């Protein structure tokens, strides 16, 4: 199941510095960010192999996660909060603030075949 991490942050009179370190055990292969998503829902999938780390570096959003057994909603409203998604975590991101910038780090390059778009409920009822 997804986990909420508190990223290591260093504070000084010059500002704050937050570090992504040892978050993805297989390293970082891909970085992207989502913005201008106010009133939109993003995601709507899970993965076969990819682990992803999500943090809102500006603004806020919610991340809904369902792993086939449990579900949880995370609120990313400070840049030191990070949701670590496992491949089986079906997820959507929503309730973006107008200034939201959601940073996503992945341990895999983009591969269309890695994406699974069916929700767990749909998989259970179709069997």
From TrEMBL:
A UniProt-annotated Pfam family: FdtA
Stretches assigned to the Sugar 3,4-ketoisomerase QdtA cupin domain: 3-119
InterPro entries registered for this protein in UniProt: QdtA_cupin_dom (IPR008894), RmlC-like_jellyroll (IPR014710), RmlC_Cupin_sf (IPR011051)
Entry superkingdom: Bacteria
SUPFAM superfamilies the UniProt entry points to: RmlC-like cupins
Name of the featured protein: Sugar 3,4-ketoisomerase QdtA cupin domain-containing protein
């Amino acid at each position: 199941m997804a986990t909420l991490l508190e990223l290591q942050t260093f504070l000084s009179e010059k500002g704050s510095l937050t570090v992504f370190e040892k978050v993805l055990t297989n390293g970082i292969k891909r970085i992207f960010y989502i913005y201008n998503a106010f009133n939109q829902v993003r995601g709507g999938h899970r993965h076969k192999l990819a682990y992803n780390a999500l943090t809102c570096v500006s603004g806020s959003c919610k991340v809904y996660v369902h792993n086939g057994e449990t579900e949880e909603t995370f609120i990313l409203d400070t840049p030191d909060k990070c949701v670590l998604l496992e491949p089986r975590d079906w997820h959507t991101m929503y309730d973006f603030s107008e200034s939201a910038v959601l940073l996503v780090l992945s341990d895999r390059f983009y591969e269309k075949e890695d994406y699974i778009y069916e929700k767990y409920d749909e998989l259970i009822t179709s069997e």
